[in-house]
Structures are given as structure tokens and as C-alpha cells.
Specification:
This protein has about 325 residues and is of the alpha/beta class. The protein contains 14 helices and 6 strands. It has helices at about 15-25, 50-55, 75-90, 100-110, 120-135, 135-145, 145-150, 160-170, 175-180, 205-220, 220-230, 245-255, 260-285, 300-305, and strands at about 5-10, 30-35, 60, 95-100, 190-200, 290. A 6-stranded parallel beta sheet has the order 3-2-4-1-5-6, with helices on both faces.
């Protein structure tokens, strides 16, 4: 039996969850989330996490598997996705990988460099230095030890600066040298990926969808959700979970640095920028079946395409 895996990609607010659920109700598919924010418990509104009714109709794997104080890397995702895909294949079903974290898709389908593991003590040391001197100063340090990585990382991108310096401190080698090494740690052998993406051809239409969804999030209690998250004693604003689009802007507002209107506007801009980056990733993909996300016949179009892939979808 062929070990197929379907990738359903797309920018934020293109309706990936709805399409995935419709496909899972039509075919023997197991949904696996490909989203760096949906892995976190308690982050529901700002991530547009599927509600309990939806998850009952179509269970999603790799949702709510970490507390927001914990880190979750592309390597973690590859390990967990391989395990979930193996379970799906063993049951005679097909994994449906759904989400918008393009780096996770790339890591799974093309492999990632075998980077050294993290070191909490070194990360704490880097954070303490940043608190004293600021992240631009640490970016200058990165430019000394790893100019190639520094050229790709912005001076205020604390997460990536921290990781690049951590890799250098742990291994004695710049992060860029690890990236140039032969790639491994991708999908298990024998998995065939079928890649599809939902597309909103007119960016104006996508921006309107993003704005409507963000409005619904704020009306549903997004700010209150972050208020509750901030009560967790070990959670900080510089942790990966709180750097997620929207959460970062709301946390800043709750610190008194912006008004509510400024917070909403910054979250809107950040979400549009995320969508732009997602489209950049999609354009770099190879063979990719594009589906108009706004077409009422999108599920039928996908079904016809899948029928050409394998008889299981006929």
C-alpha cells in the first residue's frame, strides 16, 4: 500500500480548517495540524483553534500538546508528525497535514539540519545579557560570530537571535554552518506527499477576510484570553508562544504601551505580513495544486484532483 500524505497549505484566513473537515468527512483521512501556535493549550481565540464541536466531528492531532511556557521546534514537529502519520498509515488511512506554518511543511517534506539541542542555562544567560544591553547589541555580537545568519536576522528578532547565539555557544559552530550541512530528519522513508494550497487570488479579498476574522477574535474575548495567560507565573512575553501574531500585540497593549485601537491595528498589520510571508513560501514550492478558496466548488475540485492520485479517492 502506498504511504500517501496530503498537505493542505495556505495563508492565514483562507479557510483551511473548514476544507480539511469537509475532506475528512468524505474520505478516510486523519487530520494532523501543521501550526506552531495551535500546539499550545489555552491559546484558543487568537489562534482560531477549531472549537470542541469541530474537533469532535474531525479530530486534529498535534493540537494542545504543549503548555505555552514550553518551546516547540520544527524538529519536534517532524518527530511528532512522523509518529502521527505512521499511526494513520497503520490503520489503513491517509494523513491530511493542514496548516500555515510553512517552515514545518518544509522541514517534514525536505528535511532539516540536525541542529544541536537547546541549553536552558545558556538561553537564560543570553536573555540576561539582552535585558542589560538590548537585542540590537546581541545582534551585533551575532554579526561577529556568524555574519551570514546576522544578515538574515533583524536586530529586534529576539527569538532567532537567541537561537543563533545558543547554537554557537553550545557547539562552537555558527548556525549558518549547520544549515549548510546535509539535511536529514525529515519524513520517514517511503512517504509520498501530495501538495495542495488554498489561494485567494485577490489580495484585497484576503485582507478583508483577515480583518473580519480579527474583529471576531477581539469580540470573542481575545484580550481577556491574554489577560488569563499573563497570570501564569512562568510565562513571559519573549517566549515563543507569546511571539505568535496577535498575542505579541495584545501583550504589549496590556503592558500599557499601546491603546486598544493601536493594538488591533498592529495585530492586523502583523497578520497581513504573516500572510505575505506564507505566500512567499508557497511560491517557492514545487508541484502544487492551487484551489480558489472562495469558490463554492472547491471541495469538488480537490476531490477530482485526488481521484487522479489514487483509487482510494475515486
Amino acid at each position: 500500500m502506498r504511504k500517501l500524505a496530503i498537505c493542505l497549505m495556505g495563508a492565514t484566513a483562507t479557510g483551511k480548517t473548514g476544507v480539511a473537515v469537509a475532506l475528512a468527512e468524505r474520505y478516510p483521512l486523519d487530520i494532523i495540524s501543521v501550526d506552531s501556535a495551535l500546539v499550545y493549550r489555552g491559546m484558543d481565540i487568537g489562534t482560531a483553534k477549531p472549537d470542541a464541536e469541530t474537533l469532535c466531528r474531525a479530530p486534529h492531532r498535534l493540537i494542545d500538546i504543549r503548555d505555552p511556557e514550553e518551546a516547540y521546534s520544527a524538529g519536534d514537529f517532524v518527530r511528532d508528525a512522523n509518529e502521527a502519520m505512521a499511526q494513520s498509515h497503520a490503520a489503513g488511512r491517509v494523513p491530511l497535514l493542514v496548516g500555515g506554518t510553512m517552515m514545518y511543511f518544509r522541514a517534514l517534506t525536505k528535511g532539516i539540519a540536525a541542529l544541536p539541542g537547546g541549553d536552558a542555562a545558556i538561553r537564560q544567560k543570553i536573555d540576561q545579557a539582552a535585558a542589560r544591553r538590548g537585542w540590537p547589541a546581541l545582534h551585533a555580537r551575532l554579526r561577529e560570530v556568524d555574519p551570514e545568519s546576522a544578515s538574515r536576522i533583524k536586530p529586534h528578532d529576539s527569538q532567532r537571535i537567541q537561537r543563533a547565539l545558543e547554537v554557537f555557544e553550545v557547539s562552537g559552530r555558527p548556525l549558518s554552518s549547520w544549515h549548510h550541512a546535509p539535511r536529514s530528519q525529515g519524513a520517514d522513508a517511503g512517504v509520498e506527499f501530495v501538495k495542495m494550497a488554498l489561494d485567494v487570488p485577490e489580495r484585497r479579498d484576503l485582507h478583508e477576510r483577515i480583518e473580519r476574522r480579527l474583529e471576531l477574535m477581539f469580540n470573542a474575548g481575545f484580550i481577556e484570553e491574554v489577560v488569563n495567560l499573563r497570570q501564569r507565573p512562568k510565562l513571559r512575553r519573549d517566549m515563543p508562544s507569546m511571539r505568535a501574531v496577535g498575542y505579541r500585540q495584545v501583550w504589549t497593549h496590556l503592558e500599557g504601551e499601546t491603546t486598544r485601537d493601536e493594538c488591533r491595528y498592529r495585530a492586523l498589520v502583523a497578520t497581513r505580513q504573516l500572510a505575505k510571508r506564507q505566500y512567499t513560501w508557497l511560491r517557492s514550492e514545487g508541484e502544487l495544486f492551487l484551489v480558489n478558496a472562495l469558490e463554492a466548488t472547491r471541495i469538488d475540485a480537490i476531490s477530482r484532483y485526488l481521484a487522479t492520485i489514487d483509487a482510494i479517492f475515486a
